[in-house]
Amino acid sequence: MADATPEETAPYGTGPAAAAPTARKRVRTHTLQQMKDRGEKWTMLTAYDQYTAATFDEAGVEVLLVGDSASNNVYGNESSLPVTVDELIPLVRAVSRSAKHSLVLADLPFGSYQGSPEQAFHTAVRFMKEAGAHAVKLEGGLAMVPQVKLLTDAGIPVCAHIGFTPQAEHNLGGYRVQGRGAGAARLLEEAKALEAAGAFAVVMEMVPAPAAAEVTKALHIPTVGIGAGVDCDAQVLVWQDMLGLNTGKAPRFVKRYADLHTVMLNAAREYVDDVKGGAFPSAEHSFAE
């Protein structure tokens, strides 16, 4: 192999993580605040690995969320509840190493922060120190105010999450819209309390659009919608839903921008046929003496 070219000896998977540094500045929490102040929308997508992180970063997505949704989009669980801190940390690490521009937001999984502010602090520290997260996200309203305050006082940026909170699905009676009727006033109360505690943004999930608009207008900090209408300052989707890798029934709030399942399925079938028929590898893909 003395005459091998660099391409022939490069490690498998060399790609976006080894790309030249970008000239764009890193998105910070104050960047997102400035965008709201200017009336500019911003975007968030989930990411759980090197290549999706690098691709979405290149596309200009401001925030990459390594969500506890990895539980049912990476690990094959039926819900977000089973995933653990130890399972999420390697995913956050991969994303933070690969994203040169986007802010990397790590979800705190179920059972890792609800017990006390101190528990939340120790969990968040692991994501910041071991995984390189830039901020963390936790679910819950008024009960989470002490957690948000301790974390932000300690220098850890926190994104709150209200409305439908998947980690509480059993307590909420399943996947149901939150904030209707009298619930709109409570939604606003929770959002204001979380802002006062120091949250830099608030995710609102499966909330009526008028209620989300009222919260967005009332808060100084940005709101992030997922099934919460167009008036939120930002939007977030799970990437496997948005790009059609997940072939199950999509929630009403999901827009599918591609059909990756079909693309991957057809490519894999073509590969199978080529190998079985002897068309791959050809001379083009083989080494001479």
TrEMBL record:
Instruction: Note the CDD domains from the entry.
Output: KPHMT-like (cd06557)
Q: How is the cofactor bound?
A: Binds 1 Mg(2+) ion per subunit.
First-listed, main subcellular location of the protein, grouped into a coarse class: cytoplasm
User: What pathway annotation does it carry?
Assistant: Cofactor biosynthesis; (R)-pantothenate biosynthesis; (R)-pantoate from 3-methyl-2-oxobutanoate: step 1/2
The record's InterPro entries line, in alphabetical order, gives: Pantoate_hydroxy_MeTrfase, Pyrv/PenolPyrv_kinase-like_dom, Pyrv_kinase-like_dom_sf
Q: Which cofactor does it need?
A: Mg(2+)
Keyword Cytoplasm in annotation: yes
Q: Which purpose does this protein serve, as stated in its record?
A: Catalyzes the reversible reaction in which hydroxymethyl group from 5,10-methylenetetrahydrofolate is transferred onto alpha-ketoisovalerate to form ketopantoate.
What HAMAP family would the database entry show?
A: PanB
Q: What is this protein called?
A: 3-methyl-2-oxobutanoate hydroxymethyltransferase
Point out the gene that encodes the protein. panB
